[in-house]
């Protein structure tokens, strides 16, 4: 059923940036957020509301808060420059960001709350599981959905859904090609078999090696489940295999435990990871434990092309932005370009215009195909002397 998009003039609130480890509870986050308002919420006139969901509390809070903070900086920049011109109207942007704790049931409740408040576009969800739980709901509501960082393949199965980040299958393929290009002779894999993201990346990694006739490169395969923190058994098996490289397609919390425990066992194998590794340094007491690790990422804060954003983020939040912050920032600018191209804020027009825009963002120049997928180039980041640096392939 086609849903007519309504304008909203609600006063919306923003939470303060949380640390990488998150917050201890939702109530505290809500109390903090009530103290801040966007310029759009305080202005008169036409307001275009971006609804978003992601984890602001819980174990994945770093991702949600980074996306929210990055989006906030973009919105403030756009509003300060006069807003978004659409036809004969100019809109100020506002953000309504609801906490979903990276849980599917919470995501549904958060999304329904947004729809009840009459948002104009849905930016989310931040994580793959939550995004998958909402894909059919957003299609039924016929609202444009753009996930900044949800990478599971089926998130974009409906024509109203798009993503800014790489898909899990594309990540797996690119990492496999990277491993082959680097000439590694043996690889062990340690992945989360209870997580769609980790499993999806690994399956694509295997498929690409098979397609290149290099399936024998994988000499050991180990798995773990959500909330595991002890990887002694898996790493013992990996050490015995003699693998020269350990591939860990996982989020930074698990990756941090793994690299720490690997060093404790005397494992000197190299590490390669997926984009969920972004943020791992902040989790390590001894940053040298991740020295030389490489992971896929669309963004690096020290890249000169991102200097303006990085400086603004540090000033606002006293922290260095990660790729999730950059994803949130770029997604807002994608929405702006889409509004301008559509010449309308009606859902059908916004959805149609998505394949007609190109945005030169801090995560790269991006356009979108009819399947909702982004066209953009990857970057590989390495950890050197406790800092993230672009990987030099030469």
From TrEMBL:
Pfam families cross-referenced by the UniProt entry: Peripla_BP_6
Leucine-binding protein domain ranges (all copies): 49-384
Entry annotated with the keyword Cell wall biogenesis/degradation: no
SUPFAM superfamilies: Periplasmic binding protein-like I
Lineage: Bacteria, Bacillati, Bacillota, Clostridia, Lachnospirales
Signal peptide location: 1-19
The protein's name in its UniProt record: Receptor family ligand-binding protein
GO annotation (BP), single: amino acid transport
Keyword terms: Amino-acid transport, Receptor, Signal, Transport
Protein family membership: Belongs to the leucine-binding protein family.
Disulfide bond recorded as keyword: no
């Amino acid at each position: 059923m086609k849903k007519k998009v309504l304008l909203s003039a609600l006063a919306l609130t923003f939470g303060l940036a949380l640390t990488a480890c998150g917050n201890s509870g939702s109530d505290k986050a809500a109390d903090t957020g009530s103290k801040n308002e966007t310029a759009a919420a305080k202005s008169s006139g036409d307001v275009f509301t971006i609804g978003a969901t992601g984890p602001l509390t819980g174990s994945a809070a770093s991702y949600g808060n980074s996306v929210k903070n990055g989006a906030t900086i973009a919105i403030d920049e756009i509003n300060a420059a006069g807003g978004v011109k659409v036809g004969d109207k100019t809109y100020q942007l506002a953000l309504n960001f609801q906490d979903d704790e990276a849980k599917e049931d919470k995501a549904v409740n958060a999304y329904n709350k947004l729809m009840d408040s009459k948002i104009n576009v849905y930016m989310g969800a931040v994580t793959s599981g939550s995004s998958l739980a909402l894909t059919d709901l957003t299609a039924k509501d016929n609202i444009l959905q753009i996930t900044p960082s949800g990478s599971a393949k089926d998130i974009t199965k409906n024509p109203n859904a798009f993503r800014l980040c790489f898909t899990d299958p594309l990540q797996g393929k690119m990492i496999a090609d990277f491993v082959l290009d680097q000439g590694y002779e043996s690889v062990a894999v340690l992945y989360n078999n209870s997580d769609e993201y980790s499993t999806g990346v690994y399956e694509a990694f295997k498929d690409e090696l098979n397609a290149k006739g290099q399936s024998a490169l994988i000499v050991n395969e180990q798995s773990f489940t959500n909330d595991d923190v002890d990887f002694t058994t898996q790493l013992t098996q990996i050490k015995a295999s003699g693998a020269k490289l350990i591939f860990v397609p996982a989020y930074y919390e698990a990756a941090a435990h793994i690299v720490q425990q690997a060093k404790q066992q005397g494992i000197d194998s190299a590490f390669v990871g997926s984009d969920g590794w972004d943020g791992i340094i902040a989790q390590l007491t001894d940053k040298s434990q991740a020295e030389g690790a490489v992971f896929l990422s669309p963004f690096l804060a020290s890249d000169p092309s991102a200097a303006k954003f990085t400086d603004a983020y540090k000033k606002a939040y006293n922290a260095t932005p990660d790729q999730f912050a950059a994803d949130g920032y770029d997604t807002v600018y994608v929405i702006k370009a889409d509004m301008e191209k559509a010449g309308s804020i009606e859902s059908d027009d916004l959805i149609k215009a998505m394949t007609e825009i190109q945005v030169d963002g801090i995560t790269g120049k991006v356009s979108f195909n009819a399947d909702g997928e982004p066209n953009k180039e990857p970057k590989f980041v390495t950890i050197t002397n406790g800092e993230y640096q672009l990987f030099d392939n030469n």
